[in-house]
């Protein structure tokens, strides 16, 4: 007989994302598109192009997952119900009289609610990706992590690629040095759910889904309210870096003579301790742009 | 007992594209490649690269359709007969003594005939794409429209992408605001044939193929003879825009305060009527470059 | 009863690439990555990104082959043993105390041995690609050549594309005019093995593998010792060019009036003979950067 906690988490894990959580996800995605400079003008001049970009924003993670598993990237277009829902939200957002939806979205409680519900869909996507990849490759835990990650946070790759092809995005070489917060938190979730799927974690999936989702929603709402990019990972990242890459102390003094370190900003001392490395990593996080 | 009209359209729809219509399509495609600056020099210096680009121009639509349906993009190379034909045409065009083929192609009747026959292949590609996508997704009418469109006019996407990777093409952000004439007419055809395939239009396929092809050929030849980019779509596009996006009147006055409208050229008045929107759309068409 | 020669070549063709030849291939690939400016800094700041780039360098040819045949590009991640081996080599190269591995690799005998063993893996990849493509398309000899080529030398396409997306690589339009030595020699091998597979060459596969590998290793080591980019292909390329494209003599005089030849450097004379063409090709090879 399950405890009330088990019943709660089990019922939570069986919640369908359609329609309310999906609506929140589409709302947040299309509003992010609308805030890009020139997006509204594109919607008037070439609605088809604007609609297509909005679809990429809404379904980008699934498209990337299809590309990586050699499935038809167009498959998302076959799900007529979700496409109709996302298209309606796109239409309402861009063509509502007096721009009512954007004005309604500018209230913080509305943004918090929508962002929180979107984070719930993130968990569902990660779990779906991990399970699906396991059906392809039985012991391919790296593939499971990758597909979970792609579904949960891969939309940015697709939308950035579309902008690259359109000429509206010039990738900066150092953008890839800093992983965004959604990318990090989705990778963490993907690793956790993969370990759970392979029976390496002694926790049931529905409990893990509930805990991870609460963590996602809490940190996201906290970050939005305090308007900072403080991430809770800094101490753990430093510890992990020191354990795995702790040789950098001796490493850096030899390397300085042979490598051009254009991306380094004055770490110069040969007596640099791991603390200097840690402070570099902490400095990096405070300048990371939120996504 | 079929009428003479039915017999004509039925015989027309059973015409094979191989070899004469295919030859015309390859001829127009490779001549378009040859007219690009530096193409002949590339053919001398690196014939393999030039041959590959020519193949992308000839088979680009099919390649894009394969990519979208997760089929081997190299599949077109397995059709040895067509590859041999296209390769021979590439070789003759680029390496003919005294450049005879280019000189022959410069006569307008030759261009009109080749362009007309190429437009016939467009219909066959659209119909093939719609039918093929239907075998993948039974009710996926959006997928059917997309694949019909990809096969009929998707070659430009593939060749532009190849140039992007090679460094010879810098995409302009506003290119995507204007859909080219072939893209529009292929989209229209794809929608029509999808509706016919799903029994929403009370016309047989062979009749529709004949009528649509005659429309394509007539407009293409008229545009080439009159040397204008006048398109017959402007009135219908205006009507459709006004019906679907007719709220823009109130919309634009609120939007002006919140959005940077860098791509707008002096529509500034808050009393802008749908006619101003229509005149913008008409102005856009007269400056569209023909393809 | 096989001759000693047959036994030798047969035993050679049955050698497994795992683990020693694979280790050499990963070593050479990751050292090539490490020598790029800024690579060590990326490894410190974002180890995950550096690890992913190293995996693309090690498995790029197989990834390209999967993309071309519409198989999951992530498939290489399912081979846990090879991924673990390549990851260990990446970790040791980038994070070894006092950079011991790079210093050890700077000795010429070590480089020669590793490069020689890497060339052996090239033969195995070409043969694997040709055989695999034949299982897809029975008579598709162009596909077989393409897949053999992709597996043997396609890694550069994948790594260049990754850099293009990251913003660290601007493709030069004339890079594609010059095929690198590995690309040429892999194409030659792919053609030879395809012909052998289709019974057009009266030589057994194991004999061909042995001879081709010896040719690869000998030319690679000679080029590294003499530190030149002299390629043994120049006379054959000239002969082939003259046979296939010998009309250029009359061709060039007509073309000069109609084409901008920005990539031509003063070939201007209308009495240019095929020898001028040959000297251009020879000049081109002496300036080709080695890979």
Automatic annotation (TrEMBL), chains A, B, C:
Residues 258-291 are annotated as: Disordered. It is found in: Endoplasmic reticulum membrane. GO terms for molecular function: identical protein binding; potassium channel activity. Keywords: Endoplasmic reticulum, Ion channel, Ion transport, Membrane, Potassium, Potassium channel, Potassium transport, Transmembrane, Transmembrane helix, Transport. It comes from the Eukaryota. It catalyses: K(+)(in) = K(+)(out). It is a multi-pass membrane protein. Its main location: endoplasmic reticulum. The chain crosses the membrane at residues 51-70, 76-96, 141-161, 210-234. Residues 264-273 have a biased composition (Polar residues). GO terms for cellular component: endoplasmic reticulum membrane. Homotrimer; conformation seems to be controled by binding to diacylglycerol (DAG). Intracellular monovalent cation channel required for maintenance of rapid intracellular calcium release. Acts as a potassium counter-ion channel that functions in synchronization with calcium release from intracellular stores. Activated by increased cytosolic Ca(2+) levels. Belongs to the TMEM38 family. This is Trimeric intracellular cation channel type B. The gene is TMEM38B.
């Amino acid at each position: 007989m399950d405890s009330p906690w088990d019943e709660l988490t089990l019922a939570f894990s069986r919640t369908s994302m359609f329609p309310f959580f999906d609506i929140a996800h589409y709302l947040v995605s299309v509003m992010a598109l609308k805030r890009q400079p020139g997006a509204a003008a594109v919607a008037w001049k070439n609605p088809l192009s604007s609609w297509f970009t909005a679809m990429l924003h809404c379904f980008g993670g699934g498209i990337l997952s299809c590309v990586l598993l050699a499935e038809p990237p167009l498959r998302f277009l076959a799900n007529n119900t979700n496409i109709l829902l996302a298209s309606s939200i796109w239409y309402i957002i861009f063509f509502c009289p007096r721009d009512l939806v954007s004005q309604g979205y500018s209230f913080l409680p509305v943004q918090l609610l929508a962002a929180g519900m979107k984070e719930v869909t993130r968990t569902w996507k990660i779990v779906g990706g991990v399970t699906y990849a396991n059906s392809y490759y039985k012991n391919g835990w790296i593939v499971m992590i990758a597909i979970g990650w792609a579904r949960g946070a891969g939309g940015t790759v697709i939308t950035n690629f579309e902008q690259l092809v359109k000429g509206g995005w010039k990738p900066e070489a150092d953008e890839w040095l800093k992983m965004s917060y959604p990318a990090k938190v989705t990778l963490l979730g993907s690793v956790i759910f993969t370990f759970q799927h392979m029976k390496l974690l002694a926790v049931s999936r529905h409990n893990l889904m509930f805990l991870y989702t609460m963590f996602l929603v809490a940190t996201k709402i906290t970050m939005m309210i305090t308007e900072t990019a403080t991430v809770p990972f800094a101490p753990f990242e430093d510890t992990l870096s020191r354990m795995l890459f702790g040789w950098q102390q001796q490493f850096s003094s030899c390397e300085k003579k042979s490598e051009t370190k254009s991306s380094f900003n004055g770490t110069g001392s040969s007596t640099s301790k791991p603390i200097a490395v840690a402070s570099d990593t902490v400095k990096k996080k405070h300048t990371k742009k939120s996504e």
